[in-house]
Amino acid sequence: MRERTQSQLKEVLGAGAVGTLQNRSERDTFAGMYASRLARLWAVERGLVFGRLDHVDEGRLYIGKLGLTDDEQERLLIDWRAPVAQPFYRATPAAPMGLTRRRHLQTKGRVVVGVDDDLLDFDTLTDEDRATLNGEAALLAALDERRTGRMRDIVATIQAEQDRVIRADLNGVLVVQGGPGTGKTVVALHRAAYLLYTHRERLERRGVLILGPNLTFLRYIEQVLPSLGETDVLLSTVGELYPGLTATARERPEVAAIKGDIRMAEVIERAVRDRQRVPRKPVELNLGRYALTIDRNMLEAAKNKATRSRRPHNQARAVFVRSLLNALARQAAKKLGKGLIDDDELADLREELRTEQPVKTALNRLWPYLTPQRLLLGLYASPERLDHAASTLTPEERALLRRDGGEWTESDVPLLDEAAEVLGEIDEQVLRASALQAEEEMAAARQAAEHEREAELAYAREVLELTGLSDVMEAERLAERQRGEGPYLTTAERAAADRAWAYGHVIVDEAQELSSMAWRVIMRRVPTRSMTIVGDIAQTGSAAGARSWNQVLDPYVAGRWRQERLTVNYRTPVELMAVAARVLATIDPALEAPASVRDTGAEPWSAPLSALPELVKSEVGEGGKVAVVVPDALLGELGKAISDMVEGTAVVSSGATRGTTALDAPVAVLGVADAKGLEFDSVIVAEPDLIASQSPRGLSDLYVALTRATQRLGVVHERPLSALLSEALSGLPSRTSGPTNGH
Ligand SMILES: Nc1ncnc2c1ncn2[C@@H]1O[C@H](COP(=O)(O)OP(=O)(O)OP(=O)(O)O)[C@@H](O)[C@H]1O
């Protein structure tokens, strides 16, 4: 199939860029189709075939990562997502679904290195068969494997409760609630692959978006879908949802809480209204030959008209300007002694006035073009504007929003998106004209005599300021880059560049962390509300995060969402989960930790903080990936202490970029927010008490930290444990250095 597709691609490309426009576009479409088919055929190499079904009636079927037929259309391999493959995941001895046997195949390259059978129809079994039955071997072998720093697909070992989530209906909102390690992430990814297979046409056109908590996490999961042959899915954080911006900086919890609060929607709306100004005093315009006055009545009338148009701010500006210019033109006619004028004359005068500099400046003051960036920075920078727009917040809350310039944060992105909704797009033509105008102003300033230059430049800058052009020009450059849509731009790429894109399906991971304002952005991206939301309310660490799924979803789909639960922990062994469960009980005794599926015999241990670098070294010696989860305040200090001692240590500063090496390094030192969703062979948690007290949801953070390990867990501290934690953690056997036993 690879060879055939390759030669089809070659043939199409060989036809060259000739012919009519339509010919060429057809050629591009075919080339795109063959190229992605080829990519898919190469992507499924690892574990191509992993299962066999022995049917009572139909004989043998092989299950694999994609479907294959031979030249006679005989089925060679069945795609795991096809309905006939379902018994591979769902059949049990009680409900064998027509199977006598299910076989798991382990392969290395093209060689079968192991088989593992589940015999489902006991009547056909001999006694010896029954005695050697070990259906869980494949799963347990997969779970015990050393971690590589990248998530792997689980097609060969999907469990029945997970399969139900994966194959759930596309429409509506599905919430998948499950404790740590229950496979929420990996299941969500397989669901994306399943939905693309089952609803290929609809979803390829509209695209699928997967949202994760941070860039390291996206890196961690980015290979799963390609390994299942699906390459055109957009992975993103909320910080990247506003096109042209990657916000990774994190806000202090108290600021994040305010910026994520639903009251901010109203604040933004008022901030925009506050920029549609009616000054107390009339505005005088000196046009040389005569002077005009913009009085309050004219302004109110123009503003009312613009508001009644119900268009967003930037588009309503045209209504405002036209109304005001008409009034000014009538005034000018009077001044020029023309008396009553007809419509044509009025239009001429209006257009004449439109080009007068004092008029332009006044209009820009009264109803400026605004970009979301300019609006927000203008708001944060001015206590007066904040007092006005944010009167629903307390003075303390307003003070927390104050900021001069600075980097965009993750919490700003939903506010920028909200502002973009209220402001509306700036017309392309206006953008181009204003960019041109600004360039002319700058050029004129440069040409001006030396002594005038200063003043001219200041003026040009003022024009830029007033119209918000300094970032409008940025915006235009960006728009231009995005317009270069070549024929090979994939759906995901086009969607990423378009703020108004409506996705076919959106999957939200670690969904409990998102603020109310972030949910508004996400919901705008899926008007059909076809969504999968996965998370664990007990793990909520963000101050702006969710307390219940009802609270999150009621504003959008009250009573119209369904929930599935995942109950088995595939990551954390029993011994480690016992400790985590005790911490969970301190958050709320009613919360239940998921049951672990395996034990390793390695008990969690405790040691003094001073031994940390030594212990890390010894853990590295045991092999696999090691993580040290630290309180944010100690990241620098402990990161350095460990780096000095252990080669190849990666310290993950908050707001890491996609290029981070944390996943590839033998040791990662990181805060809880960056450890969310990840897993490591061995985890050491430093100063648990400080983690628990560093934010209002600190105990949940500690629970997250304690559930990241697949094999071994240690706790190091020098501060005494608080009463709350001592019951959960103080009984751990102590360790100074050297390997743990039991593994
Ligand atoms: N059916 C399965 N077969 C093999 N491995 C599995 C299976 N289900 C889950 N796993 C493994 O268990 C680990 C935990 O899965 P995952 O990260 O998806 O859990 P999670 O519920 O998202 O956890 P958390 O909430 O802690 O982030 C992963 O290594 C995953 O590959």
TrEMBL record:
- Its domain of life reads Bacteria
Q: Where does ATP bind?
A: 178-185
Provide the UvrD-like helicase ATP-binding domain boundaries. 157-573
Keyword annotations for this protein, in alphabetical order, are: ATP-binding, Helicase, Hydrolase, Nucleotide-binding
- Which Gene3D superfamilies has this protein been placed in? P-loop containing nucleotide triphosphate hydrolases
Family annotation (Pfam families): UvrD_C_2
Q: InterPro entries, from UniProt? A: DNA_helicase_UvrD/REP (IPR000212), P-loop_NTPase (IPR027417), UvrD-like_ATP-bd (IPR014016), UvrD-like_helicase_C (IPR027785)
Q: What is this protein called?
A: HelD family protein
What organism is recorded for this protein? Nonomuraea guangzhouensis
